[in-house]
Amino acid sequence: MKGAWLIAVGGLIGAVVAAYYYFVPGMNLDGENGVLLVIISSLLIAGAGAILAGRVTGALAAVLVFLLLLGIIGTAVCAYFLETPIILGAMALAALGWVMRALGHAADSSVEVA
Amino acid sequence: MKKIFALLAVGAAGVLMLSGGGIAQMAEQAGDQVWDAFGGNQQAQKYSTASQITPDNVKNLKKAWEIHTGDVAHGKDETSWGATPLFVNNTVYVGTPKYKIFAVEPDTGKQKWVYDAGHDAKLDNQGFKNRGVAYWADTYPQAGKPCQKIVYIGTVIGTLHAVDADTGKLCTGFGNNGVLDVNQWNTVNNKWKVGLIQPPAVYKDTLILGWAGLDWDYKVENPGTVFGIDARTGKLKWTFNSIPKELMNTTGTANVWAGISVDPELGMVYMPVSSPSPNYYGGDRLTEMPLVTSTTALNAETGEVVWSRQLIHHDIWDLDINSAPTLLDIKKDGQTIPALVQATKMGFLFVLNRKTGEPVYPIEERPYPASDVPGEVAAKTQPYAALPEPTVPDTTPPVSTLADIASFGECSRWKAQLRDEGRYTPPSLRGSIAYPATVGGVEWGGGAVDPTTNTYVVNSDSVVQVYTLVKQAEAAKFLDGKTHNNGYWAQQGSAYAFELQNFLNRWGMPCWQPPYGILSSYDMNTGKLLWKKPFGEVQWHGFYLPESWGSVTIGAPVITKTGLIFIGASMDSRVRAVDLRSGDVLWKYRVDAPAVAQPAVYTYKGKQYVVFAVGGNGILTPRLSDQLVAFALP
Prior knowledge:
The structure holds two protein chains of two kinds. Chain A is mainly α. In chain A, 85% of the residues lie in helices and 0% in strands. Chain A has one domain. Chain A is built from four helices and no strands. The longest helix of chain A is centred in the last third of the chain and has 29 residues, at 85-113. In chain A, 37% of the residues are buried. The model of chain A has no long low-confidence stretch (mean pLDDT 91). Chain B has a single domain, classed as Methanol Dehydrogenase, Chain A (8 Propeller). Chain B is 7% helix and 32% strand. Chain B has five helices and 43 strands. Chain B starts with a helix and ends with a strand. Mean pLDDT of chain B is 93; it is low at 1-29. Classes of the chains: A mainly alpha, B mainly beta. The interface between A and B is medium-sized, with 13 and 13 residues.
């Protein structure tokens, strides 16, 4: 649960920071399509994280978890090539959330089995 | 006794001035190192003796001041600002693309005065472009008299404005109340007004002025006259034409649109002469014109040709000779040779004796492919300089696997349809690979030299373009009644129009392998390459691509005494300091757009400054700016 919220927060930070870069000149990223891509992917990460936090289970959860992993990695790669350490940090936060969620889920499963 | 020494010092300074040492040395006597010409000095060396910033402390470099001129525009009337500021007369002067001169304090950027030449609309052939201003000072200034020191700015409508360097007021004794209409002399085939984009060179009391125009639109165009002008009055002293009179009704241009160098001791000027029109089809201009696409030396007082060396025969690739030759004295075989280095779009560095025009390092004639276009006869041979090693290889880089896969084989399929026989493959009806193409190689900034060691540094592009000649009837539908439109140029009056394409896939990815730009260093005493490295980064949709890919560059390096290179030029809108010995980047700073001219380096009150005009250029990226920014140690 906490992990999923962390994913959402990471995505939200990424989206806000990317939007700032997109609209405010000075970082030479204003109006760039690459930044637009990061805004969209970060928002999707935030949204998916929030949905996961709602205790979604089953196949939908599995698909979301898988897509989130791809989204976080992809956005982090974009952030790396955009040379935006804050967004990279936000993705690290989301990745931490993803790991926490995965570990927590594994623990929950083992409790259920026991 | 002190007075005697002071008088001796003043006398020595006067001798330096009279002997051609000029304003730079004069100012250095006072302790400040000036930058009084586009190329740092009239020899286009782009070298500064300033020594405060070193490879050890350059990492501490900080922004000292910044101003925005307000002269920036995107879209149809976009600006192109490749100015190098001047520092002289205790003032930084810079011209803007909408023809203003800003005079600012060298240590704060605080405005002293602004002169507005008044052309705020795009009126003619070149859009809003400026590469700076020129400075002249009277050898015997009279106290209290205005216009003893003059700053000149040209406009795209062919007017040259002369402004008092202290007050910013027009010098009424020059031209017509301070404005010289150069178009009064533009009387032959004057398709358009001449664009005075590059500031004139200065030799004693003579300004040497070339111009820029359009050479892809018409077969017959304005012949590329160079003017020698009285610096005080604007009176015409002499003219030079690279095109013989009897051929002026079959061609045009072959003008001097880039910088011009001056050897004050020899009293000679050195000009990079561009290609004749139309640039891509020469079937109507088959008669030899030995002065075009050349480096040509003139007597600065009379305009008479002293020597000329053609560097491309019968140019059909728009490979204008396009940068001011860099003057240096080469130490070779126990002799000192007065020399120049002519960097070119072809990537050749021609090293010539500047007294005679003879090669210092061998130039051979090599055979190249014939044209298959009816009416065209490509030159059978072209000059080739193997030493120093050319900055551009002889064969086209292989197709980029990444770009090819990303476009489902578009790159390799397209290349298979094109004519590609390496360097100097003639334009064709089916399309020819052009490498190096009109972008270069080396662009108009040219190289820089440390004259104490003859280490020469130059940035160069690796760009593949596609040249296609198109029958006029077929091209008409793309041209839509204009002389250029949709990537087509009319070459009106000749049998063929011309289509220019960059060799990019559908996603805009280059179809050729990187690096796209390099920075190289040479020992000009031996001609040997010291190092060559990819330079800059491409910023593509905001993403910074790997450093090993380099960047296409416009702009040039400067060298300082302490072994530093300062350069902007790259597509990633960064300016950099590079170690002259190793080529390693020691410092970089993000500015508002690509800085497409070399910076100025000067000292003022004991402090060293490096100033970049950050203008951008639509050839590189859409990112443009009006930023003038100075860096110094804290």
